[in-house]
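Summary of Year 1 activities. Much of the first year was spent building the evaluation harness for sequence design. The harness presents a backbone, in tokenized form, and records the residue chosen at every position. We chose the following record to illustrate the format because it has been used consistently in internal testing since the harness was completed.
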């Protein structure tokens, strides 16, 4: 009889763990081509647990992160570096970021002149970009090589 009670207790424990794990869903994302770059790993282990009031969530791909439920901020490290662009560029904490708002309110914000490149997708209806961009900029300023910088169109020499 003791063996039966142990088996029943184990079955209840397994069912409870399975039920609890169903409460927090994993965010499905694709890893970037350069996700295995060791510099991405250096950043990933330093990412904050919260961005403002948005808690970090598990993702299912290397060098990715997500915050909010539903997801309001998504990060991918190792995306292909951007070439010259006419999209707006902003500098935050010493890091240049190219801003693509073509799918607003989802903004795609990608580092420029840093390798590997990092991309943030931010839902502007739910969160301001200043927090996530600043948090990531501080992490990569000294860890990622600078290969270029944004310039104004008037500074380009034909």
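For this record, the design step produced the sequence shown next.
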């Amino acid at each position: 009889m003791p063996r039966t009670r142990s088996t029943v207790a184990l079955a209840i424990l397994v069912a409870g763990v399975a039920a609890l794990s169903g409460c927090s869903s994993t965010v499905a994302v694709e890893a970037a081509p350069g996700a295995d770059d060791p510099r991405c790993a250096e950043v990933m282990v330093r990412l904050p647990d919260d961005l403002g009031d948005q808690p970090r969530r598990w993702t299912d791909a290397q060098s990715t992160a997500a915050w909010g439920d539903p997801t309001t901020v998504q990060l991918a490290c190792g995306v292909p570096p951007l070439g010259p662009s006419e999209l707006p560029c902003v500098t935050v904490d010493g890091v240049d970021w190219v801003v693509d708002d073509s799918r607003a309110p989802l903004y795609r914000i990608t580092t420029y002149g840093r390798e590997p490149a990092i991309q943030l997708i931010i839902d502007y209806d739910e969160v301001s970009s200043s927090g996530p961009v600043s948090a990531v900029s501080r992490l990569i300023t000294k860890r990622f090589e600078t290969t270029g910088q944004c310039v104004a169109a008037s500074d380009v020499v034909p």
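The chain has one domain: 26-152. Quantitative recovery figures across the full test set are reported in Table 2.
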